[in-house]
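testing teh design pipeline on a random one, pls ignore if ur not involved
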């Protein structure tokens, strides 16, 4: 079909009058470039599900795409199965959750809807707790305000892996007509699942340490109610909360990007944390769907790797035993921590769909992008709420000794070396530039990055390139959730200025301005 025919056919099969009118206006205005972008292809399952701008067309998040996706998932699962469906507070989330439920129910699937905006880890917990065959969470996590998305979980409680994602995508593409899909009645759950989740995570702290002052922000997302309830049930003092970011707001008005990793995103939290009236021992931020956690002490944010090894050491020091895991782009310190406790260690590709399946004996996993799973048997995905409880417990334990999390981190560095890490992130509008940069580095691997000699080149995945250095490494990969090229740098016990020199050399080699 021509582009005009493709757009017209989509309009005629679109169940949403808003996006029908939107696309009709673009067609009548002759907005060819805009329409070509909107129909440049379907959304694909990336590192963490489908994500795209809320807009009409096959390359956006809209009710037609959501219904097609639900129909493809139903075809994969079959009638008689059970799927739990949750949502966050982004634009379109209420309608998208209802559409998923209606299509699943119409296909003979028992669709159970979480009753309101709730964190993603509650949905991941619900899949296991209810013995469901799958779960769907309507969220775009930490993406820009214009986006929404869908995370899909299988019966093991972990996110959709390959090659299953490709199988589901083929079934989505085979849906003949959205308007012809039968719709049914989904069941709306009560508060039992949320209460069971709270009971499960508040049992995780093993000590009685509770004397800690915490500052917290949900970053305009859905974490506040759950975190406050968890802290109260676990016996921690009520945290001080960033008022400007307390209520869910899909426009995220106080941050450029609702991602705790982005520069400036934690400014209001750090201001509250260090205010004389607060003087927090630790500051905690959730991302909008509350599955990730950022931590700061005073005005010093911890890197994801630092939080990751601190919590691993905390759990292992309290007697937890089993496999710990992290990803190829995370710090290598976790392997050393695991060895010091005599527990097995695994390194996986990026994303919790890989980490969650690192082994049946998995007791802890983290990724440097602020994702932590402190109890995979309960939530087989990253969970910012349960991690926040253990951060508070660890801070309380250190406070009782007259110390902070930074002192605990210094102990780890003294034992295992100072693992300095840095992420370089290049946001672009032209995805072809990312593909070209990755292909160039793949075809012409550097012999060195400035003064740092490349000792080995590895390619654990089509989109992941690992360059081992003397005392460090560089990993290059495109983001699986946003239009970014990322480089992950690590140096162990580097001299002053070494990381800056490595970052400059990597930036020059990739040929992309920051």
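output:
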């Amino acid at each position: 079909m021509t582009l005009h025919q493709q757009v017209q056919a989509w309009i005629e099969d679109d169940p949403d009058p808003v996006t029908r009118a939107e696309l009709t206006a673009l067609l009548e205005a002759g907005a060819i470039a805009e329409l070509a972008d909107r129909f440049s292809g379907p959304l694909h399952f990336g590192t963490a599900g489908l994500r795209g701008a809320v807009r009409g067309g096959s390359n956006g998040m809209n009710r037609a795409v959501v219904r097609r996706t639900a129909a493809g998932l139903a075809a994969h699962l079959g009638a008689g199965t059970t799927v739990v469906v949750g949502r966050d507070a982004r634009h379109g989330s209420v309608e998208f959750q209802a559409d998923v439920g209606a299509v699943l129910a119409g296909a003979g699937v028992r669709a159970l809807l979480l009753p309101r905006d709730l964190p993603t880890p509650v949905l991941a917990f619900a899949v296991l707790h209810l013995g469901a065959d799958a779960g769907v969470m309507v969220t775009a996590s930490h993406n820009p305000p214009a986006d929404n998305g869908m995370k899909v979980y299988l019966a093991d409680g972990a996110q959709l892996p390959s090659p299953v994602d490709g199988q589901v995508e083929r079934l989505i593409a085979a849906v003949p007509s959205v308007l012809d899909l039968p719709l049914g009645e989904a069941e709306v759950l009560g508060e039992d699942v949320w209460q069971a989740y709270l009971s499960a995570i508040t049992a995780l702290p093993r000590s009685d340490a509770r004397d800690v002052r915490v500052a917290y922000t949900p970053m305009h997302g859905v974490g506040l109610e759950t975190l406050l309830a968890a802290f109260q049930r676990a016996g921690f003092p009520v945290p001080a909360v960033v008022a400007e970011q307390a209520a869910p707001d899909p426009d995220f008005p106080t941050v450029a990007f609702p991602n705790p990793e982005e520069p400036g995103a934690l400014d209001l939290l750090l201001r509250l944390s260090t205010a004389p009236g607060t003087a927090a021992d630790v500051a905690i931020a959730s991302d909008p769907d509350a599955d990730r956690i950022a931590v700061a002490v005073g005005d010093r944010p911890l890197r994801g790797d630092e939080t990751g090894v601190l919590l691993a050491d905390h759990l292992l020091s309290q007697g937890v035993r089993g496999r710990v895991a992290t990803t190829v782009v995370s710090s290598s310190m976790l392997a050393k921590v695991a060895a010091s406790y005599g527990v097995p260690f695994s390194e996986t590709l990026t994303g919790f769909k890989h980490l969650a399946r690192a082994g049946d004996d998995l007791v802890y996993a983290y990724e440097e992008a602020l994702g932590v799973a402190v109890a995979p048997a309960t939530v087989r995905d990253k969970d910012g709420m349960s991690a926040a409880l253990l951060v508070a417990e660890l801070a309380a334990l250190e406070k009782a000794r007259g110390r902070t999390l930074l002192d605990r981190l210094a102990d780890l560095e003294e034992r295992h070396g100072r693992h300095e890490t840095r992420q370089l992130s290049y946001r672009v509008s032209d995805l072809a530039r990312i593909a070209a940069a990755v292909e160039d580095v793949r075809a012409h691997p550097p012999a060195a990055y400035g003064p740092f000699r490349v000792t080995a080149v590895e390619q654990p995945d089509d989109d992941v390139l690992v360059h081992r250095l003397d005392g460090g490494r560089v990993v290059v990969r495109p983001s699986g959730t946003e239009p970014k090229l990322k480089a992950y740098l690590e140096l162990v016990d580097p001299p002053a200025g070494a990381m800056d020199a490595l970052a400059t050399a990597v930036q020059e080699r990739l040929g992309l301005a920051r």
